[in-house]
Design brief:
The complex is a heterodimer. Chain A is mostly helical. Chain A contains 20 helices and six strands. In chain A, strand 2 and strand 3 form a beta hairpin. In chain B, the strands form two sheets. Chain B has a six-stranded mixed sheet, with helices on both faces. At the A-B interface, helix 15, helix 16 and helix 20 of A face helix 2, helix 3 and helix 6 of B.
Chain lengths: 541, 291
């Protein structure tokens, strides 16, 4: 080949090598970058006063006085909203007003009887009161504004009647007057709509601010607090301001999503003002501050993933990985040593080697099923233990998964130790075992450690083998090897397949994945550091 | 130190028959008194019709010779003539290579090395070997030299330390490394590493020292130092050295064997072999007409 062409080829190959490395780095950044950034938002975010309240109540963290002052401030700023809301609701919800009217009527009857009114007067007064009551109830139920005003006016006129002065019926007059005020500002025909929209608004306000004042504390921790994060609060705010509707534009086409400003639904009422109020004053109402929630890595989480951190998952993953490595590494190295040093070159050894190489490529779910069938259902009963999934079985299954990789890497490493090393040792009179342990193994250590690094990464991130052999989604930190445990990979799977959890809490999903990536990164860095130290000793610096 | 043993106590004394008429020399000093060259260890290495095969091809064939105690014997010859094979057979290092077999007898200190009952660990502690390329362990200098004695069961530091110092002194390495014995052996230069390997081999107090082209990977200065070392060592050890370098063989050895194509062509005193060889093949090789 001519020199020029050779040089061109050389440049081309160098160029494509550089390009491919850049592409790999780019792919890595594109895949891992967003995950790490969004996962980071599980640790670094703007937390609201609700978050601090929750931390205090669930984990006993934070300054009690500070939080109490903050809560008081926040309550004050929110009170305006709630007052408007209550007022409007009282106007709309006439059911209980009707009930109250009826109650007053009954109490009035009791009052009359107590006063021992003569029976004719009693009947007369009662029938009059009944008429007033019915008019009032009609006024409450009717949607025709004129009719309502007519009835109310009638009731109010009755106030002048001296018979009813000082009696319970005066309450009815008060109710009538209040309602008159309300009616004058509301479009009664839309009362049904108002009721439904009001419920929606109340629901969103509960999501934002927690239970409304006057409501009983809900039993689920999830509903006891409002929006704990500023980004979530923004999402709820958007939902408050804009209502989502699905409109059919043509008979055969699918529905189209449209957004409608919720303000317009309450046009003309007093409720219209609260939307702007909430939008402008939300920071005051929620007091978001940048929060560094490093306890994310330690905290337990109540079922549902809404609050808390991934502490138990981290412990579970580390425990399972560690135990499986403790089992797999000695077994792997000894098997590799046997295959090279002691086994001959016959057909059986070749078959064993082929099997090991094949096992390295078997899908992990097969290992999971095997672990379930063998360890859980067969081995545990043999030892007179309950046939239950536990950390032990999960670790053993994972150990089987990584064993072929370790055997293969160790074999290559041991085989690549130069024969002169062994010869030097043997020539001094060392036996074969002694030579292996003192000379061959330390020389093969970097290669073996590479195999171990690869296996650790694989074992920490595998989901299928531990899925039915010992990992669950919600459990406490395990106290014995015979219990079940949560794990990071299982947690990610469960969040992804759970109803809406991933959609509503993206920071939790990304947070768990980011934790897994960071954990594996740390394990790898540690193992690489060990390998470089061994390597340095081998080369003499 | 333990004697070379076999597990069977009754071993016949083996009569050594050599076809070459060579007798060990008895030196006299200027006053005419004999300097007794009686070696404290009268190990004699003898081969009786010894052959070695790698699979189907021959390594060496029908070798019969005797090497005398406290002498330096050089084995020379062209590449591939079986020198290293023969040397490695003496301490059974060829066992590492699969599919090999040996025929005939190879006798060290009146015991057949290829007997099935031979204790290899013992044999290798009595017959030390230095290889072509220096191969120190990836440990410190001290640990390298102490490896052999540790195998023999000497764990006491008060006994190991003087042993290590003595071995390093005999290998002419002590002055250069005495300041830092914990330094990694791989940080030494090539010549120093080879001397370290010699010290390591001597730490087990072997009776025989086998050297497989010890200076081929070294520069002339280091070569000269090692040759001096060999001349010093021959007072107390039987040394067999394989070399490509005829001048080295002439300088260092007392007896020389010439191998060619797996067979022993000639074995004689060095002076006689190089000045007045019997066989024509030897003469051709020495004068450079082939090989």
């Amino acid at each position: 080949m001519r020199l020029l062409i050779r040089q061109l080829w050389d440049k081309f190959f160098t160029g494509s090598a550089v390009v491919s490395i850049l592409l790999m780095v780019l792919a890595l950044v594109l895949i891992l970058g967003p995950m790490l950034v969004r996962g980071g938002s599980a640790v670094f975010f703007r937390g609201t006063v609700e978050f601090r309240k929750m931390q205090l109540a669930l984990y006993n963290r934070g300054d009690v006085d500070e939080i109490t002052t903050e809560s008081a401030e926040v309550e004050k700023s929110r009170q305006v909203i709630f007052d408007t809301l209550n007022h409007f609701r009282r106007g709309i919800e006439t059911e209980h007003l009707i009930k109250r009217a009826r109650k007053f009527y009954r109490d009035y009857g009791d009052q009359l009887r107590q006063q021992n009114t003569p029976s004719e007067q009693y009947t007369l007064l009662r029938s009059q009161a009944k008429k007033i009551r019915n008019k009032l109830c009609d006024a409450y139920e009717s949607e025709n504004k004129n009719q309502v005003l007519e009835n109310l006016d009638f009731v109010i006129q009755q106030q002048d009647n001296s018979d009813f002065k000082g009696t319970l019926l005066e309450e009815l007059f008060v109710l009538a007057q209040k309602y008159k005020k309300v009616v004058q500002s509301i479009d009664l025909t839309r009362r049904e709509q108002y009721a439904q929209s009001l419920n929606e608004v109340q629901e969103i306000l509960r999501q934002l601010f927690g239970p409304l004042p006057g409501e009983p504390t809900p039993s689920l921790a999830l509903f006891q607090y409002g929006a704990t994060r500023w980004d979530l609060a923004q999402k709820y705010l958007h939902r408050l301001l804009w209502k989502e509707e699905w409109i059919q534009i043509a008979p055969d086409k699918p529905l189209v999503r449209r957004e409608l400003e919720r303000k317009t639904l309450f046009a003309g009422t007093e409720l219209e003002s609260i939307f702007d109020e909430v939008q402008n004053n939300l920071p005051v109402m929620l007091q978001p501050h940048p929060t560094f929630y490093w306890q994310y890595f330690i905290d337990d989480h109540p079922p549902g993933y809404y609050f808390g951190g991934v502490g138990p998952e981290i412990i579970g993953t580390l425990l399972i990985t560690l135990i499986s490595m403790l089992v797999a590494i000695p077994l792997g190295i000894i098997s590799a040593a046997y295959l090279i040093e002691c086994a001959g070159e016959n057909i059986i050894v070749r078959v064993i080697r082929t099997c090991i190489n094949t096992l390295a490529g078997v899908p992990s779910i097969v290992f999971g099923l095997f672990g379930l069938a063998f360890f859980v259902l067969y081995v545990l009963p043999r030892f007179h233990m309950a046939s239950k999934e536990c950390i032990l079985t999960a670790s053993l299954t994972l150990a089987l998964l990584v064993l072929p990789v370790i055997i293969r890497a160790s074999e290559e490493a041991i085989r690549s130790v130069p024969r002169t090393y062994k010869e030097a040792s043997l020539a001094l009179g060392a036996g074969r075992f002694r030579t292996f342990v003192t000379v061959t193994l330390p020389a093969a250590a970097p290669g073996i450690l590479t195999g171990i690094i690869l296996s650790v990464s694989r074992a920490a991130g595998e989901t299928a083998p531990i899925l039915f052999t010992g990992a669950v989604a919600f459990a406490e930190v395990p106290r014995s090897l015979l219990q079940q445990t949560p794990a990071l990979s299982i947690g990610s799977y469960v969040i992804a397949t759970s109803d809406n959890v991933g959609m509503n809490l993206p920071h939790k999903q990304y947070g768990m994945v980011m934790t897994l990536i960071v954990l594996i990164l740390c394990l790898n860095i540690f193992a690489i550091w060990i390998r470089s130290r061994t390597s340095k000793k081998l080369h003499g610096y | 130190m333990t004697q070379l043993q076999t597990s069977d106590a009754n071993v016949e004394q083996i009569q050594i028959k050599t076809t070459v008429n060579v007798q060990p020399e008895i030196e006299t000093n200027s006053a005419g008194n004999t300097l007794s060259r009686s070696c404290p260890n009268c190990y004699v290495i003898a081969a009786e019709d010894f052959s070695f095969y790698y699979g189907n091809s021959t390594g060496v064939k029908n070798i019969t010779l005797e090497m005398f105690p406290c002498t330096v014997t050089a084995i020379i010859g062209p590449s591939g003539c079986g020198k290293s094979t023969f040397l490695r057979s003496i301490n059974r290092m060829n066992d590492l290579i699969p599919h090999t077999r040996a025929e005939g007898r190879l006798i060290v200190n009146n015991h057949n090395v290829y007997d099935k009952r031979t204790n290899l660990v013992n044999l290798r502690q009595q017959v030390g070997m230095v290889f072509q390329k220096p191969n120190p362990f990836a440990k410190s200098i001290y640990d390298n030299v102490a490896y052999g004695p540790l195998l023999q069961g000497i764990r006491n530091r008060s006994r190991l330390d003087p042993l290590v110092e003595e071995s390093l002194r005999s290998a002419a390495l002590w002055d250069e490394v005495k300041d830092d014995l914990q330094k990694s052996a791989l940080a030494l230069s090539g010549g120093q590493q080879q001397r370290l390997c010699i010290a390591r081999a001597m730490a087990t107090r072997p009776k025989v020292l086998l050297m497989d082209e010890p200076c081929s990977a070294l520069d002339p200065l280091a070569t000269a130092r090692i040759e001096d070392l060999i001349t010093q060592l021959k007072q107390n050890y039987t040394i067999v050295i394989v070399t490509h370098n005829m001048q080295q063989a002439a300088r260092v050895s007392e007896y020389t064997a010439f191998f060619c194509l797996g067979e022993l062509i000639e074995y004689d005193k060095t002076g006689k072999l190089f000045t007045n060889p019997i066989k024509k093949q030897t003469e051709d090789y020495i004068t450079g007409r082939f090989g």
